[in-house]
Each structure stands twice: as C-alpha cells, then as structure tokens.
C-alpha cells in the first residue's frame, strides 16, 4: 500500500478548505491532510458574518464544514492555533502551541488582515476591525451597553457592519473619504441609489470626510475630522480595506510583493509550497472576492491531484450580492471611458438601474441595481468576449432567446459558469448533482451542492437549472421547501390536511402527518398554530405555548430581560389626555426610556415583567402589537386636514384602517401607511400596503418593505372612495393570510406569487367579496390580549408573576 503524502493547509478559511474539498474528491486516498486555523471555529462563510451581526443567523448557520466533516474525511484539524514558523528545508510547520507537523506539500491560505488607519487614538477601547466571528461577538456585546457607532469605510464590509449595528438598535454613521459609496463595485448613479435606500433604513452618511483623530480618554467618545468637526461615537469600526497576511511567508523566505507571489499553478517561489486566496498575488493581482479564490482552488486541487488542468490565468472580477437587502451586481470594466458606449435602464420609481458598457462591439462591464437577474448571462458574455454587433442593443438587458425564457437562458451558459457566487458552485456541478443524485427541488440542490445556501440570491437560477435538467418532470410550483426539518410536508400540504381532515390541535397535526420530531421545533410549532387559527378562526383555541416569547408575553423582550410596551395609537394620532396618561404611567413604573418609534408610536422601554399587567391596566389603551405577527401600525401624514399640498384625509383613512385590522393575525408583521398626496411623506411606497392620495382617488401599493430587504411596493389598484380602500385592503390581507407562508413578509409573498396574480385576484369582484366575508369572520373573534391578561389571574400567575425560590 502506497504511503499517503502529507498535505498541510495553513488557514482554515473559505479558499483553502474549498481547495482541499476539491482535492479529496479528485484524489481521495492521495494525501494525509492537516489543517491549522487561528480561530476556534470550523470553516465558515465569512461573507455571511453580517447576517450573524444583524441577528438573522447564528454562528452554526454560517458554518460550511462542521467538525464532523473533518473527522469523516480523516483530516487532522488544529483550531485556535496559529502557525508561526515554516522550515522549508526540513519541510515542517510549527504552531504557537508548539505543535510541529511535517509536510510534503504545503498550502498557505492565510487570508488577509484588516487595515487599521494609524490615527491618533486608534489604540483606545472601542476601536476595532470587522473580520471574524469574534469581532461580531464584541460588536453584539457592545450594542448592549452603547448607543452610537461609527463605521469608517463606505465599502461592502463597512455597509454590512453598519446594517448590523442598526439591527442591534444602535445609531450609526458611515464615514467615507469619497463622495460615493461602494465605488469599487458601483458607478455613481447606482451608488447614489444605494445610498438613498440605506438612508431610508436609518444609516447616516458622512461623505468626503477625512478622519484626523479618535477622541476620548480611555475609551473612544468620538471621531474628529480634518475640517474640525466631530462625530460622537461609543464604538468605531474600521472597514477601510484589507492587506494580504504574508508575515509567515516572508519569514520563511517566500517572495512577496505585497502578497505571496504565485505562478499559474499557485506555486510559490519555494518548492512544494503553494498559496491560494487573499494572501496570494497572481500576475500582480490579489483577489478579495470569493469566486476568483474558488477558481484558484480548483486549479490547485487538480494540480495536486495529478489531474490534467489548464493554468489559472486570472479572473474577471464580478460581484453579485445583497447589500442590506438590496440586490447589486457589477462585473468587468463598468466605468465609462474613452472608446466605450453604454446602454442604461434607470427606473427610479421601481428602484432599478442597469448599465452595460460596450467597447469594440463587446460587453466589457456591467452594473445592475435592484434586479440582478441578467448578471450571470452578462458575465458569460464578458468572459467570452461575445460579439454583439448583430444583436439588438435594447435586448441585451433581457433574455432575448425567444420562447424558452429563463430556461433557455441557463441552457446557453457553459458548465463552468458560476451560478452561486457565494459558494463557487458552477452550472456543471449543479446539473451533475441533479442527474446523479436524483434531486428535484431547490432545497435538495442546496443541501447537496451548497448552491443558494448563503444569501439565496441564486435560487431562481437553481430553479431554472432544475427545469432545464429535468424538463417536463420538474414542477416549479410543486418544488417547495418543507416548513422545517421536522417534516417533509410543505406549507400547502399542511394547510390542505388541516382543512380536509378537520385537524384542530398542533399535536394532532404533527401526529396525523407523521412528524419526524414528535415535539416539533421553534419553526414549525408557531407556523402550525397560525395555520390552524387561519383555517378555523371561530373554533380554534390559540396555543400560546407554540408562540414565540414576544407573542406569548404580548410585549417585546429586550437584551437585558426587560420588556417594551407600545400602546395602540390609531394612525399615529393622539390627544393631550392620552399623552398625559402615558407620561404619568411612565413615571409611576419608573420607565427608564421613552422613545418614538418609526411608526409614530410611543415606546416605553425597560419595563419589568412583573409590572406589565399593572402598567397595561393603568394605561387603559389597547395593545399596539409591536411584538406580533399582526398589524403593527398605519403611519400617516397630516393630509388635507392641515397640509397645503394634501388632497386626501390621510389621518382619517389611517385611523379607519388601523381600527379595522388591529389584532388580525397574519403570517408576518404588517405595516401600512397613508399619504395625503403624491409627495408621500408617510413613506407609503415601502409598506406592506401603502395608500397614496392622487387626483380623483387613491393608489394602493402592495408588497413594499423598508427593512433589511428593501423593496418598493407594486401598484395594486386605483380606487375612488375610502370605502373601497378598506374593501381592497380586506381582500388583500385575507388573501395574504390564506396563501402566505408563516414568517413570510408581503414583500416576499408578492414576489413569489407575482403582482399580476395578486392584482387579478383582488380586482375580481366575486373573489374580493368572498375574501372580505372571510375577513369578517377572522376579525369577529379577536380580543385585546392586554385586557385578557388584566382580567385573568391565571394568565398573570402563569406568565407575569415572578416566583421566588426558597
């Protein structure tokens, strides 16, 4: 038996481990693999750190290769150990923990280090970089104590950090030396559109600002600029760029300038030593995006496996990602230059911008904002230097392949076209997996190939590849994800079973439908509770144990274990007596913080659990459902009542809508707004349902979202009367209740069903009346949960009284 060669990988990041994964598939018995990682974690997706920071994912959710993967593949993994010495003569590496391992082949994948601006005061507490899980943990911890952050750097990493701070409840300034953000990925129009979208989310930009000094004593208190102005801060994150981490290589005598110099097979200047990823310098370029790093890794893996491979000749850099929920793509040379011409589509209302740059009848670059569906196809044309002289220029930004639509579009892609940029998965890999593994759904493709596992932006392309590979046997509508890992049943199958079998309890559903986990989980139990209540609103008894803590307590739990109380204020309108009562109650219960919410409500923060019911009774106001999957608020402007531009009674309509739909259970939270004129001061265009007064009537916009995934609403209908507003809203919300997945916002729901379909249902008079009738039934049984708790000693004892242990 041949003795395995010893392969050591220094760096447990995405680029290096991806290369090893390829190598194991190509030559499973060739190497005995050892990996050193400086962090205590297994290989994880650094791209998704922003999701962890924002609270949308846990650390486990972004792990690419769990510890079991290393064990299964016979890999020796040293975590929390940094290699400090390479002896290229003896061919050994030694870690800071004193572990020495010999190698026959060595891969350096040491990545990069964040660049820290050498400002006076940069050594103060509260000044940090954003690069690792540990950085995320520090930032999350800081958000519990501090309220204001500054991010220096308007690139992708800086914007992700800023978005995370907003989600953590902090105010944040983004400082950038230029007058546009993400200038390496976007041209000026796209950059400005992104800035506007992010400002709508709450980010504040300080552009064309040069940092001069970090002020404060022991801990940072602010950032001083060269123009003399100062911005306050409790925390400063530097996200101004990265530098290849090459000190280990330099000490070992490897040629570096500034990254580790490699040839077209990723070989360094020293025999048997290779470099891949952000630390490598190939033909004068060090790449910082994942797709080029995976392209390098594929060549390196084939070379080490002894498989014939072409050289790595560099990558055409492109980026397809989500920035705070906004789809962005850029590739190639997208800036106008001498000899270039551009095709542009700029729809400010829909928030879509597309630009293709052409030179010598070839596409050399593109920028897409808001709709990136053309990105993969354009990238292929850029790489292949496709001659477009015979093409209609207006057809370049849409699929012009004829009747085949999207499926024909993916058919034209080569097997090496990268479908999932986050994880470097190609069309060929996906199609092979579909055929060989018998995959039939996007979920199965994700689990098998990791495509769409990260940001999810490539799911439509994966679905198109399924249709292309499986042909007529693929039912795109049937290939839906199960509601959780406890069952193979989809949302539609569960609802159908509840209706057809007359199921009435959460456990009954799980028993009848054969749940794998008989107790269910935190994802499926709340969903089942909602579906049962939606199907049988008059008879179903809500299962409070299947609700999340906020909905069970009817108050938002805060980081320190206290709660927030938001009373209902219809349409954001109040009166002196109500305001006085709120103030008196806040004093009575020593409420530490009183805040106005974005939905024009008053938030009483820091309330003890045992004080909740007494406070609600003293307020004598209904719950504002700030915690619930229900109608949160109807935001209004002052409308024609006071505004000289107003053409409609925004406040009156908003109050009507809020009183009509308060306490209505919905798949996810619902926010609405009414603007008294097209100036749209109530931001109706980015609400789940927005109403705008126009000449002769009202426009209704559906499926907007001003949160992490910003989406401008689609025009649903134009009506003439206030009564019609209520009627159309009833039908719209009821249809959402009946067809939406639990946890799915209307923005996702409208995108999934298509606005044309939703519009067709709502504007059909017969269907609308049927939906309104079912809405009447649903609303007839709602009760104010605060009053129910006030009137029930049992509820108070079960949920709100603090039991002292003796």
TrEMBL record:
Q: Which residues bind [4Fe-4S] cluster?
A: 637, 643, 677, 681
What does the UniProt keyword field contain?
2Fe-2S, 4Fe-4S, FAD, Flavoprotein, Heme, Iron, Iron-sulfur, Metal-binding, Nitrate assimilation, Oxidoreductase
Q: What organism does this protein naturally occur in? A: Paenibacillus sedimenti
Report if keyword Isomerase is assigned.
no
Where is siroheme annotated to bind? Answer: 681
Question: Domain FAD/NAD(P)-binding: where?
Answer: 6-282
- Can you give the residue ranges of the BFD-like [2Fe-2S]-binding domain? 418-467, 483-532
Identify the residues that the record assigns to the Nitrite/Sulfite reductase ferredoxin-like domain, covering every copy: 558-620
State the protein's name: NAD(P)/FAD-dependent oxidoreductase
């Amino acid at each position: 038996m041949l003795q395995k060669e010893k392969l050591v990988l220094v760096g447990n990041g995405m680029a290096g481990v991806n290369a090893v994964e390829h190598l194991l598939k190509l030559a499973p018995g060739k190497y005995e693999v050892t990996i050193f990682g400086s962090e205590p974690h297994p290989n994880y997706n650094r791209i998704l750190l922003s999701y962890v920071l924002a609270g949308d994912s846990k650390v486990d959710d972004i792990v690419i290769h769990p510890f079991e993967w290393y064990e299964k593949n016979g890999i020796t993994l040293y975590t929390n150990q940094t290699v400090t010495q390479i002896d290229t003569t003896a061919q050994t590496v030694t870690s800071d923990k004193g572990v020495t391992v010999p190698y026959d082949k060595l891969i350096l994948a040491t990545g990069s280090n964040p660049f820290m601006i050498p400002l006076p005061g940069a050594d103060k507490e509260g000044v940090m970089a954003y690069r690792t899980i540990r950085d995320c943990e520090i930032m999350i911890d800081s958000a519990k104590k501090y309220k204001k952050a500054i991010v220096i750097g308007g690139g992708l990493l800086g914007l992700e950090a800023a978005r995370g701070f907003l989600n953590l409840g902090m105010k944040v300034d983004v400082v950038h030396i230029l007058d546009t953000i993400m200038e390496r990925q976007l041209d000026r129009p796209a950059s400005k559109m992104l800035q506007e979208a992010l400002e709508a989310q709450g980010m504040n930009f300080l552009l064309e600002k040069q940092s001069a000094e970090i002020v404060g004593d022991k801990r940072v208190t602010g950032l001083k600029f060269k123009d003399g102005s100062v911005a306050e801060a409790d925390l400063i994150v530097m996200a101004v760029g990265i530098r290849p981490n090459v000190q280990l290589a330099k000490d070992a005598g490897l040629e570096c300038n500034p990254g580790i110099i490699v040839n077209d097979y990723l070989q360094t200047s020293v025999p048997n030593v290779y470099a891949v990823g952000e630390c490598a310098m190939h033909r004068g370029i060090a790449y910082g995006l994942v797709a080029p790093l995976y392209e390098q890794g594929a060549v390196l893996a084939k070379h080490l496996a002894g498989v014939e491979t072409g050289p790595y000749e560099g990558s055409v850099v492109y980026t397809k990602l989500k920035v705070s929920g906004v789809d962005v793509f850029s590739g190639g040379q997208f800036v106008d230059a001498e000899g270039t011409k551009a095709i542009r589509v700029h729809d400010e209302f829909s928030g879509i911008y597309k630009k293709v740059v052409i030179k010598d009848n070839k596409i050399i670059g593109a920028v897409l904002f808001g709709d990136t569906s053309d990105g993969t196809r354009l990238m292929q044309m850029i790489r292949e230097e496709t001659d477009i002289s015979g093409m209609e220029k207006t057809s370049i930004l849409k699929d012009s392949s004829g009747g085949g639509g999207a499926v024909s579009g993916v058919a034209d892609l080569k097997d090496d076209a990268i479908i999932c940029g986050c994880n470097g998965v190609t069309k060929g890999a996906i199609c092979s997996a579909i055929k060989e593994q018998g995959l039939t759904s996007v979920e199965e493709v994700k689990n098998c190939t990791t495509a769409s596992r990260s940001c999810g932006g490539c799911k439509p392309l994966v679905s198109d590849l399924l249709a292309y590979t499986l042909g007529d046997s693929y039912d795109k509508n049937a290939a839906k994800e199960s509601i959780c890992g406890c069952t193979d049943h989809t949302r539609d199958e569960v609802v159908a079973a509840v209706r057809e079998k007359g199921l009435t309890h959460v456990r009954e559903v799980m028993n009848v439908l054969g749940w794998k986990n008989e107790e269910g989980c935190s994802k499926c139990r709340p969903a089942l509770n909602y579906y049962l209540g939606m199907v049988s609103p008059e008879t179903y008894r809500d299962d409070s144990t299947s609700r999340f803590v906020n909905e069970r307590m009817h108050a938002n739990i805060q980081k320190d274990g206290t709660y927030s109380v938001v009373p209902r204020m219809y349409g954001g309108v109040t009166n002196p007596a109500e305001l006085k009562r709120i103030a008196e109650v806040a004093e009575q219960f020593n409420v530490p913080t009183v805040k106005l919410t974005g939905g024009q409500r008053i938030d009483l923060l820091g309330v003890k659990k045992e004080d909740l019911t007494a406070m609600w009774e003293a307020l004598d106001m209904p719950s504002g459902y700030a915690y619930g999957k229900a109608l949160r608020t109807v935001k209004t402007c002052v409308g024609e009542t006071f505004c000289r531009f107003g053409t409609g009674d925004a406040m009156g309509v908003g109050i009507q809508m809020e009183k009509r739909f308060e306490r209505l259970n919905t798949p996810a939270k619902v926010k609405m707004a009414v603007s008294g004129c097209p100036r749209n001061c109530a931001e109706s265009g980015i609400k789940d349902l927005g109403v705008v007064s126009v000449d002769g009537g009202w426009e209704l916009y559906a499926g907007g979202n001003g949160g992490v995934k910003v989406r401008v609403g689609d025009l649903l209908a134009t009506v003439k009367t206030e009564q019609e507003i209520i009627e159309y809203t009833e039908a719209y919300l009821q249809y959402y209740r009946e067809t939406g997945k639990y946890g799915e916002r209307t923005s996702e729901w409208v995108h999934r069903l298509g606005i044309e379909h939703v519009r067709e249902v709502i504007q059909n008079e017969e269907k609308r009346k049927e939906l309104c009738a079912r809405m009447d039934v649903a609303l007839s049984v709602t009760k104010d949960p605060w009053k129910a708790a006030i009137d029930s000693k049992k509820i108070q004892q079960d949920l709100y009284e603090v039991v002292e242990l003796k």
